[in-house]
Amino acid sequence: MNQLERAIEAALFAAEEPMSVDALARFLGDAEKGEVREALKALTETYEKRGVHLVERGKRWHFETAPDLAHLLRKEREQVRRLSRAATEVLAIIAYHEPVSRAEIESIRGVQTSGGTLDVLMEAGWVKIAGRREVPGRPTIYATTPEFLDHFGLSSRRDLPGIAELKATGLLDPVDDAFDDLMGEGEEASETDEEASDAA
3-72 has which fold? Predict the structure, then answer.
């Protein structure tokens, strides 16, 4: 392990929050960003089989417990944060369409969205206000946070599962299939009615 790797290791270990490559480069006295990236890659490999891993979440780096050991460090009093169905839907819409306004969320869901639902997601640290849309009324727009990526073990939004993956895991109702089946039944009924009419 060279001196730069040791310095990055120390910086990340002592940091209160995850650090980007730019932040690390500045912290280490304007180090070359390319060299910082190479050192991070080397450190990632070094920690791959250890009890803690070096990971990148939302372009920021930090150490976290190895997934297979996380259960050992969970506090008994810690409770799993459970979201309502509405909050889950809103979170999914924001994750897949961000940045998105409340009106756009409601348009996609087809129902009104309570301000309390967005408050719950922001209190959880998974959603943030990302500015205002440059249209009349300048509505507030929302986006996910690095904490959202970290909680769900995603390096970036590109790692979000696709429609096929969600259907395969049972996390998405096959609405299209159900609609097709319904339409198929309707067509069969129409054909039967036509045949009966012709016979008459």
Answer: Arc Repressor Mutant, subunit A (1.10.10)
Does the domain formed by 85-160 have CATH 3.40.50.2300? no
- Specify the DSSP element, H or E, that contains 64: strand 60-65
The backbone torsions φ and ψ at residue 58, rounded to the nearest 5 degrees and listed phi first, read 60, 40
Cα separation, 156 vs 57, whole angstroms:
6
pTM over 0.85: no
Which of 28-37, 95-104, 187-196 is least confident? 187-196
The rounded distance, in Å, linking the Cα atoms of 113 and 119 is: 11
Q: In 81-100, which positions are buried (b, 16+ CB within 10 angstroms) versus exposed (e)?
A: eeeeebbebbbbbbbeeebb
CB 60 within 8 A of CB 146: yes
